[in-house]
Amino acid sequence: MVVNGLDEYISVKCKQCVKTVPICPKPGTRYVIDGCSFVSSIVRQTSWIFGGQWKEIKDLVEKFVISLLGEGCDATFIMPHWEDVLTPTDLKNIKKGLDFVSVNKRLPTAVDFYQNPPCVYFTVAQILRSCRVDVKCSVSDFEFEVAAWAKVLDCTGIISDNNEFAALKGVPYFRLSSLNTKEHTIDYIDRVLLTKNVGLREHHLQLLSCLLGNSLIPPEMLQTFHRKLQSGMQPSGHNPVLDIMPRICMYVRPQTTQYNMLARTALADESKADFLQAIISRYNLENVDGDWKPHQTPDPPHQVVTFICNLIHVEVISQCSILEHIQSLLYFAKFTFSRILKKKKSTLR
Questions:
Q1: pLDDT digit string (tens) for 266-323?
Q2: Which DSSP helix (H) or strand (E) runs through 237?
Q3: What is the C-alpha separation between 164 and 210, in angstroms, rounded?
Q4: Quick check: pTM over 0.85?
Q5: What radius of gyration, in Å, describes the C-alpha atoms of the chain?
Q6: Contact 98, 334 (CB under 8 A)
Q7: Phi, psi of 238 (to 5 degrees)
Q8: Which of 47, 64, 160, 277 has the fewest CB neighbours in a 10 Å radius?
Q9: Is the CB of residue 146 less than 8 Å from the CB of residue 158?
Q10: What was the pLDDT predicted at 86?
């Protein structure tokens, strides 16, 4: 989830706040990299449809690491917590792929459907570790923990395509999608210029993000509030946020700490004032100091580790698809269970 309309506003109304800078301005430059954005960028570069391109993904990850570290940079990747290793959605997608192969006798193409690889976060984390790169796993609040690690590790900034990091206090935000490995540059969002453009100060940016809509206050919760701000305005055809941004900013400026009024007006529920204040504290990275550490995450199940390690073995992934692996596992399970059942029946006789 990103801040609703912020990217559109920057590209249309505030291009000057985007600055292209050297990726490694000095030796020892260190970044925290958003694992979700990184994995998405890697998968988008592949011919991935549903299975088979693990070697392609592995090669792209290694190429990225070499290009980044070759510039003298250091990086810590933050990945989602291990509960995301194999989600119920992944299992449904695997079944969808198997059903497709069963009916059509071929692997699906992009025309049929597109899915992220199952277990992709865990797999990419393992590939990064094999490249001797520091990888940490989120426990619960992914975006907050990415930002907290950036602050604790005293990093140059966060590399991500999630513009929610632009609203954080004190941690610079760099756009992953703008990284140019040939020119060794990356785009940086200048918060001072951004807030100056909209007539606010930098400390207003956290509240502005909430009133636009973000991961914790989805735009659906703000529909009534936004419609009121649109009253009497002629739609421009862009994202409505571009039209109402000046009105939101006028609303934000005098009411930074009046959470009861903001909750009543924007969220239609004054009881959510504490919730709104807690989000602002989250964006300000309060209570994050040099001793901050998330709780330890449990290791993933041994079976999952074994399964993924088999998948990323070069000789295997260059010849077989993940669907073929899953099919062979299912056939093996079916064969094994049928043998057990036959043996059980013969014993009963």
A1: 888 888 888 888 888 888 887 777 777 765 544 444 444 444 444 444 333 333 444 5
A2: none
A3: 10
A4: no
A5: 24
A6: no
A7: -85, -175
A8: 47
A9: yes
A10: 56
